[in-house]
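Hi C.,

You asked whether I'd gotten around to modeling the 55-residue construct. I have! Everything is below, sequence then structure, no commentary in between.
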Amino acid sequence: MSKPGDPLAPWTDRLLRLGPGIAPEEARRYVHDLYVQAQADIDKERAEAEFEREE
């Protein structure tokens, strides 16, 4: 269903298997948004930890 080498592909495929009525484009957008938010949260945590180390 998804392109090989795409880091979101396994998660998109998994979501599609869990929710048979979900459109593939919607599943991909959801996984992408979730990935972007998780990455932003990790970046924020790293920045806070770095700031605390510098103090």
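If it helps when you're writing up: The mean pLDDT is 91.

Thanks,
B.
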